Amino acid sequence: MPLDRRRGQPDPVPDLRERGPAVLQEGVDDEAVELIELHAAHCPRAPASTLTAVNPWLYGVALALAGVAAVVLVVDLVRDRAAQDSHFVALAVLELVMVVQLVVGIVALSRTDRDVEGAVFVSYLVTNLLVPVVAAFFALAERSRVGTTILLLGVATVAGLEVRLWDVWGGRGA
User: Fold this and answer.
1) What is the C-alpha to C-alpha distance for residues 23 and 27, in angstroms, rounded to an integer?
2) Which residues 6+ apart lie within 8 Å of 63 measured at CB?
3) Alpha-carbon distance 157 to 123, whole Å?
């Protein structure tokens, strides 16, 4: 009897790759129906949604970008520098990650069976998308050290909202 590759135990269902074409050519008979039923009874089904809204990779990239941007902003704040173009480029990259996370999050929320407060989760996603834009707008309006501080607050807010998104998706609070 062949082994089930996922569990390392004997597979109660014969190898359908070898017999599948023959069964299909002969037509559906009682033996094929029995094989399908036996396969369905002994093979666990995949979860309804394998897509995660707060993807660990996106989460890590967003936190890493926010962390690097925060360090650069703190250094420039200590040096008494106004917001520079490189700061806005970093914010734009962070914004792109937030757009991707918004799309992935809404799609995953529509497909999940998790107990997630949809309105809270989507509001965090949308807020996380808007914070860098608002921070950039106010930093451009105030081209001094205060503008750099505003960008730093925006980046810190994005990092905080990311951590909160992780908690909401995990079901640890709404």
Assistant:
1) 6
2) 159, 162, 163
3) 14
Helix or strand or coil: residue 4? coil
* Residues in contact with 27: Cβ distance below 8 Å, sequence separation at least 6, in sequence order: none
Query: And the tokens for 116?
Result: 């997630």
Residue 60: CB atoms within 10 A of its CB come to 11
Residue 158 tokens read as 């994005």
163 vs 127: CA distance, rounded Å: 13
Q: Give Cβ neighbours of residue 111 (< 8 Å, ≥ 6 apart).
A: 48, 49, 51
Residue corresponding to tokens 């008979």: 29
**Tokens matching residue 63:** 């936190």
Q: What is the pLDDT along the chain (174 residues), one digit of tens a residue?
A: 454 455 555 555 555 545 555 545 555 566 666 766 666 666 655 444 455 667 788 888 999 999 999 999 999 899 988 888 888 999 999 999 999 999 988 888 888 777 777 888 889 999 999 999 999 999 999 888 888 999 999 999 999 999 988 888 876 655
Predicted TM-score (pTM) of this structure: 0.66
CA distance 129 to 101: 9
